[in-house]
Design a protein that fits this description.
The structure holds 2 protein chains of 2 kinds. Chain A is of the alpha/beta class. Chain A has 2 domains: 114 residues, 3-Layer(aba) Sandwich (D-Maltodextrin-Binding Protein, domain 2), CATH 3.40.190.10; 124 residues, D-Maltodextrin-Binding Protein, domain 2 (3-Layer(aba) Sandwich). Chain A is built from 10 helices and 12 strands. In chain A, strands 1, 2, 3, 4, 6, 7, 8, 9, 11 and 12 form a 10-stranded mixed sheet that branches. A two-stranded parallel ribbon of chain A has the order 5-10. The termini of chain A are far apart. By secondary structure, chain B is mostly helical. Chain B has 2 domains: 51 residues; 222 residues, MetI-like (MetI-like fold, Orthogonal Bundle), CATH 1.10.3720. In chain B, 80% of the residues lie in helices and 1% in strands. In chain B, a hairpin with a 6-residue loop joins β1 and β2. Chain B is globular, with a radius of gyration of 23 Å. In chain B, 42% of the residues are buried. The chains are: A alpha/beta, B mainly alpha.
Amino acid sequence: MKRVICTLLCLAMALSLAACGQKPAEAPAAAAPAATQAPAAAPAKLSGTVSTDGSTSMEKVIGALGEAFMEANSDVTFTYNPTGSGSGIQAVQEGRCDIGLSSRALKDEEKAAGLTETVLCYDGIAVIVNPENTVEDLTLEQIAAIYTGEIKNWSEVGGADAEIVLIGREAGSGTRSGFEEIVEVKDKCQYRQELSSTGDVITTVAQNPGAIGYASLASVKDTVKAVKVGGVAPSEAAVKDGTYAIQRPFVLATKTGVQLGDAAQAFFDYVTSADANEIIVAAGVVPAN
Amino acid sequence: MKLNRNLVEDAVHGIFLLLGLVTVACVLLITVYLVVSGIPAIREIGIVKFLFGSVWASTAAEPKYGILPFILTSVYGTAGAILLGVPVGFLTAVYLAKMAPKSVKEIMGQAVSMLAGIPSVVYGLVGMMVLVPGIRKLFHVPDGASLLAAIVVLAIMILPSIIKMSVTALEAVPKEYEDASLALGATPEETWFRVSVPTAKSGIAAAVVLGVGRAIGEAMAVMMVAGNAANMPSLFQSVRFLTTAVASEMSYSSGLQRQALFSIALVLFLFIMLINAALNFFLKGEKQG
């Protein structure tokens, strides 16, 4: 009798293992609904590859767009090579990829060398403080001095007498590299805390009256106060028209006068159309179109 | 019929063997993978520079990969947790095993089990919301995310393993030993601390080592309360542990930075192997003693 039970148990275990094995196979089906937001599939079935190369900061937005595009056009292979803006621009110039990705505007000499820039979206970064903080407005220079540790007390910028607590993101984060590049404090920040998500930054700033942090504009909540930078309050409109200082464009670089391949052209049209806005916003940036 | 039985038995044996081998295979796979992916970065950076360098700046223009701050933080943090957790856990265990009336023992035992079942992210969340602001106000420091916060969280997290294992060890002390001591005129307290505890000492030591293992390997809860700046450890400064160094930068890392994270994981793995060896040593001692 014991043996019978034992055998049954073993069978049950084997079966449950088999059942576990099936789960991953179901996962793609569960992810499928996301595809419905993707572009209406092109009339003729597209095939081919879309290769992109460049900015690591754009990983999130371009990755999400690429996935959505591939969901809708199953025969298209989308690739993204995170090499950095400079390398991406060079790659498209040399014809090693279809679309170069740059998290800065193209320089005049790059445009002269035969590249066209199309702004995909803008990455606006809000500087946030605790709601109790009386400081409303900081200049870019003051922010730089705060993050490099030159200004240590809120009273030096018109606030209460309290030590400034610098909250930042972990090394490798796109928000961090964006912020540090624009404010020109790269590798010089004296962070007190390095947190690995935007949500953690916001929670921490919301709790500590002396804290200052940064977060992508789209994710700022009421629990913290976004300060004006040089007198301009951060908003989508201010980011789009360029008056808000801590922002950068995410640019698609293509060769001037050279027709993209069918698949690449379809991808380009899709990401620059309003259809892609939902995905762009979900990636935490402000769509340009 | 006999043949049939044998067949079933063999099959059952086979299944059990297979299931056992899955575990062994996992351990081997992880070990090999860690060594293979951890060695290249150590080679490139140089083992002395890697283990004893005091600056970690993985995404700087001139990256520095020194993990001494992480190693020291892990060691100090674990030591602190043991210092706080062991006396509390040990005395609780003595109380539960020897003094507590049956009803109290049952309820307390349940509570300890529940403490063990709480997911580490919950410890981290409560620490972040309650402990971190608490430390900031109590000690009048600008920010509460610190080594101290991590130590307190870890001390609570290791309590269940210390208590449970010590209780088991204390309850396994032969009743004759205690009876003899009592008959010789020793008070119950003298008996517990002079007879029961020394008899159970290798089990209690194993409990402490288990606590060390749990504390040094914890990432999530620590990441949420320690601040994660790569400072040399100091009680009220934000610090980064070996575990959190890997976890916080992994998501966006690339190139040598990513390889260096694997090397950190390898170092952590060696630490834990060492602790496991110590645990085995103590457990063996218990069997003989």
